[in-house]
Amino acid sequence: MNRPSQSNYTREAIKGIASTTLQTNLRSFQERLGQGAMRMWVELADPEKRRRVKASRMRTLDHLDIILASLAEKVRARGGRVYFAETAQDASDYILAVARKNQVKRVVKGKSMTSIEIGVDPVLEAAGIEVVETDLGEYIVQLAGEPPSHIIAPCIHLDRRQIGRLFADQLGIDYSEDPPTLTRAARHALREKLLSAEMGLTGCNLACAETGQISLVSNEGNIRMATTMPPVHVAVMGMERVVATMAEHRETLQLLTRGAVLQKISTYVSFVGGPADTPGETREFHLVIVDNGRSKILADPEFREVLACIRCGACLNICPVYGKIGGHAYASAYCGPIGAVVSPLLEGINKHADLCKGETLCGACKEVCPVENDLPRMLSALRHKLAYGSDQWDTRQMNPAEAFAFRLWRHLVTRPALYRAGLRLAALLQRPFIGKNRMISRMVGPAAGWTDSRDLPPIARQSFAARWRQKHPPTPDVAKKTAENSGEEKV
Amino acid sequence: MNSEEKFFATVRTALGQAADGERPAKLFPQLFASPDPRPALARIAARGPAELAELAETLLAAATENRITTYQVSSLAEAEAVVVELVRQTDPEFSHTRHLLCHDHPDIAGLRLWQRFSRESVAVHTSFSQDQQLREKTIAACIGITAPEIAIAETATLVEISGPGRPRSTSLVPSIHVALLRSEKLVADLEEAYALLGQRQQLDSFVFVTGPSKTADIEATLVHGAHGPCELHIILLSEPTLPGDTAHSAQPAESAKQREDTPESTAPPEAG
Question: Using the beta-carbon criterion (under 8 Å), do A267 and B228 form an inter-chain contact?
Answer without folding.
Answer: yes
